Amino acid sequence: MIVIPAIDVRAGRAVRLLRGDPNEETAYDDDPVEVAVRFQQEGARRLHVIDLDAALDEGTNRDTIRDICRSVVLPVQVGGGVRTLEDVAAVLEIGAGRAILGTSAALDPAFVARAVEEFAERILVAVDVRGGRAMVKGWREEGPPVEEVIPALNDAGTPRYLVTAIARDGTLDGPDLRLYRYVLGLTDRPVIASGGVRSAHDIWALRDAGCEAAVTGKALYEKTLKLSQVTRG
User: Which fold has domain 2-229?
Assistant: First the structure.
């Protein structure tokens, strides 16, 4: 089970949003690069970096993300505003190990098929879920139901999924295990869970449910979870 620290970048700072709401922001550090280096020193095996400005169509933090990728030896998965093959290429060129597709994937599985054909395992498909539906465009609009999205993305060749339970995101209320079990029943691809993690107990529960990895941010920033507790197993 891999625990992947999250660094969400907005206006050049490391922040966390509550349930994806840009009006519910908590800023944790003015230097996301230092945060990345610190997570590496604490034993992280991979990093999850999201350009919130790009996701919300409010700008870009690509230079900061490039600096993160160059400052660590860990693989970094990068998302936020990655909507075209050119965007994928640009993210990978600045050092990302994986590019995360979100809105473009949920709305256009054919795009995923083209991306996988060109970039193979370096594609990570995000399915962000609220009320049983995939949410798109910065989690502001409803997309198709999960039971339609996952099979279509399976057929498109999705290598692995990142599934976020939006209602739990940034809450420290524990992961939505029912959602992950449901998604795992719809696919044979690896699933990375995101949203609600508070403690090591949550990590082991996600592992036992069948998830490959868990992304967590707030639990690490608020110190309800330490990487040293979950770097085994």
Answer: TIM Barrel (3.20.20)
Query: How confident is the prediction along the chain (233 residues), in pLDDT tens digits per residue?
Result: 899 999 999 999 999 888 877 878 788 999 999 999 999 999 999 999 999 999 888 999 999 999 999 999 999 999 999 999 999 999 999 999 999 998 889 889 999 999 999 999 999 999 999 999 999 887 788 989 999 999 999 999 999 999 999 999 999 999 999 999 999 999 999 999 999 999 999 999 999 999 999 999 999 999 999 999 998 64
Decide: pTM greater than 0.90.
yes
Judging by DSSP bridges, how do beta strands 161-165 and 141-145 pair with one another?
unpaired
Q: Is 8 a catalytic residue?
A: yes
Which residue among the candidates 87, 128, 176, 202 is catalytic per the annotation?
128
Which one of the listed residues 8, 87, 169, 202 is annotated catalytic?
8
Tokens of 80: 């936020």
Residues facing 162 on adjacent strands: 126, 192
| 108 is known as an active-site residue | no
